[in-house]
Amino acid sequence: MKRMLAVPIAAIALAGVMAGSGLSPASAEDQTLTVRAGDAVGESSVNLFLPANVTVITGTTLRWAISDIEPHSVTMFAGAPPAGEPPVDPSPATFPNAKNVVNSGLIVPSGPAKATYDVKFGKAGSYDYFCIIHPNMTGTITVLDANSAGAPGADNQLSLDARGNAALNSASFEAKDDLARFRAIPTAVVAKTGGAKGYTVLLGTETANTQANVNQPAKLTVQEGDTIIFKSPSVVPHTATFGTPPPGDPFALPASKPGAAVDGTGLVHSGVLETIPDPSQANSFEMTFTKAGTYKYSCIIHGAILPDGTRVGQQGEIVVTARTAPGAPNTGSGIAAVSPNGTSGLIVVIGAMVLALAMAGGSLVYSRR
Ligand SMILES: [Cu+2]
To answer: pTM for this structure?
Structure first.
């Protein structure tokens, strides 16, 4: 079996060597090379172009492949960077073009298949590009004429994959370290009046090149009357949303009243939380847990509720037990999963990833992710 596999791999390797040595391609007109725009490592997203810097021959089509749930854009320009978010260009696009800007808009795969965005490079030059929602996602495409001195050193698929894998590997350590650090953060708890406690749950974590849409702790047990502050410690926006939000833009759904009671009835929504310099942007929201039960919640930007009620993506669970006198046995009982509030059970959360697709031609602002 191994031997059989070795043949095609060797053939591919040989093709790569030939490309690297300038023997192929004589013309790049039919050549399509793939670059990954972000990827997943375990529970984390790596927000990098893999690799960031690419050298190709004039006529090459570069295909950006997006497989992670985190959306990305491929937005490139010649000369001055675009001032606002440029209009979306359908794939395949060509570059440079009359406006000297190409923008894929935010792309996320809708199923198991990769989403792709193709750009054909018709003219030698050096072109910078970026993702409109991830500040560290930048790269440069260097396009060389086939007869230029540097052309024999242009990238082929093997060299792109090798550098992409190296960058992904190094970012995977960053992601793992950060997730381990995040998971080890003890839950902050303070005493409240009447013997109640106030807990803090952290929504999501990120590093320069990675993010994980998970909560710390993912599951927390409190007593009736306790409060929880949900907080996004990073620039990534998250929500804590109990009950059944209406479909629509998660960024437009108004927050509940501060301190709102979660008791299994109605919608209790934190609003969008993120820690950014803008003082008008909330980064935390407090809720009160008034009734024993098990309450599941979602981030409606990074999670969704499927038609059968299953939650996917970023979510958490709060178990509320009956209030006990200090030292008394835990009498919490009668725990039942919260039902989706009598809705038809059709999709009740439209995640931002889905929304991003719908709004591909729209006006998502740069800070949204
Ligand atoms: Cu989120």
So the answer is: 0.75
